Every structure is written in C-alpha cells, then in structure tokens.
Amino acid sequence: MKLFSRRTLAGIAAAATLVLGGCGLSPATAYVPKVAPGTIKEISGLPDDAQLTIVGKNFTEQLILAKMAVLAVEAAGFKVKDMTDVPGSQPVRDLMLSGKGDMTWEYTGTAWLTYMNKAHGIPNQHKQWLAVRKADKKNGLTWLKPAPLNNTYAIAIKASNKKKLDGITKLSQIADLPVKERTFCVESEFNSRSDGMNPMLKKYGIKRGTPKGVPNSNVKILDTGAVYSATAKGLCNFGEVFASDGRIASLNLQVLKDDKHFFPAYNATPIVNSQTLKQYPQLKKVFGQIAPHITTSTMQTLNRKVDVDGEEPANVAFDWMVKKGFIKKP
C-alpha cells in the first residue's frame, strides 16, 4: 500500500541510522503551546510523577495528530516526553512494541498490510479496525476507537471539470464517460501496485490498455506531488491522491466516492500500550473525546494550514483543540 511510497520507505531508510535503544533516539521537536484543561479535565488522583511518552511519525498529518495527543494528556495532568517527529513507520512501531512509547496514532491499513504482513486490506472501515485491534492485542497494544479520518488512496478531479464530466461524483461513473475523457495522472507505484490502478479499473469494469477501456496513452505517470498540480491544471481528468492531503482543498480538487469499496481503510486510531492503559484507564475517555471529531475533511484543512500556509503543526493542533473546547489557553 501507499506506506511504501510516502511512509514506510522513509521509515526503512531512517531505521538504518536510527538507534532505538539507549540514547540514540531523542525528541526532534518538542514545542507545544502552554495548555489548560477544557472539556478534557485533569485526572483526579493522578500521581505527581505521572508521565507518558507520546510517539509520532515525521510527516505533516502525523505531526498534527501527535501534537493533539501531547496537548490532551498535558491537559489531563500528565508530564509528557514528546517524541512526535520520529522518522518513519517502523521505528514508531518498534517504540510501541518495546514499551518505550505509551501512545501513538496509527492507521488501520498500515498495521494490517505492513506490520502484520497481510496480502490485502479490508475496505470496510469497522471490520478493518476490528481486525487490527484483535491482532495487536497479543502484542500488548490496545486500539481505541478510531477517528473517521480515512487517509486512503483516492481519485480526484478538478472541481470545475465536474460539469464537463457529466456531474461525476463517484468512481463507477468513469465507465460511462467517453474514452477520450478517461485520462489519468498517477504516480509510478500506484500504476503498478497489485492494489492500485489496474485492479481499481477492473473493480469498476474498465479494461486497461484497450481502445474501449483506458488506453495506455490516456495514463500519465508523474511524481507524487506533480499529480496534484497536473490534475488541477486539467492535464488529466482523474488524479491519484491521498484522501486527507491538504492540497485537495487548496487546489480545488474534488475526491470521487469509492462506491464499490475498492481501496483499503486507513483510519487514524489512537493506540495505547496496554499496560499503560491498565495503569491509567482514564486515557480511554481522553482520546474518546478527540477521535470522533477528526474527519477526513477536517484533516485536509489542518494539513493545508501546515503544507500550504506554513503554520507550525503544534499551533495548528492547539488552535483546533481550543476551538473544539477540549483545552483552553492558560
């Protein structure tokens, strides 16, 4: 899955230089604004030395989510060891499995396909969450209830092209368009993946490489970032995107509904070390307040503030949590 294009490759490379034991791993950026309790209240009777290590990966969305976690547990009264900029998926996973991390946000599809080595993801979001929750229980990790945020693959169009494309809103409608309109911009990995371009077209009843399906001349292979701008410029009608990417909104793209449920689920979910959760069961309520409010649309907006507007992830997380009332300014 996409982990190997945007996430896991970075993690594999980083793992070669990252020392997880001893003093080799240290927080890269521990900045968060000062915080006071809001609807997240201080936990009564919490020991003065209660501390949690919050772990997160080093790309925009994860930085924002992890800073939300830091702010939440600080509001609840914990001291925090902030390790929210770890370079890669596997190092974060190793920290959680070793007990050196207490909490992180992980994607259901990432765990299922990458850590658990399953051949195929589960498109149904709830079933995918149930599957990883059950599988990780024996690893000492507890998956709390997931956020609606589903950072999966998606196909987007230039919003202003919607009328030209017969008002298209879902992937199954691509087959109804003239062949000349079935033009795609995708990255090389998506073009060749066993769960990418070709099986997606097959799922929707369209044959790749045929005059009446999607001729190969209709498919442009581009770098990941170039796909977004090429789609926005109308160089192709359909572009491969990540569903929660901030550029979707900033470039006025519109994601089509995966109405035959082809793409695996990638719901962001708070994971807590089971021993930590046993010691501090109140954490379930803390993250249970936040997760239901993190939708794909919300994350597009927050990611855009960082990637397009240049804001600091910790400030973006802080402003959103204050706005939602979870925390207050001190």
UniProtKB/TrEMBL annotation:
Residues 1-30 form the signal peptide. Keywords: Signal. It holds the Pfam family OpuAC. GO terms for cellular component: ATP-binding cassette (ABC) transporter complex. GO terms for molecular function: transmembrane transporter activity. InterPro entries: ABC_Gly_betaine_transp_sub-bd. The keyword Nucleotide-binding does not apply. SUPFAM superfamilies: Periplasmic binding protein-like II. Residues 51-321 form the ABC-type glycine betaine transport system substrate-binding domain. This is Osmoprotectant transport system substrate-binding protein. It comes from Spelaeicoccus albus.
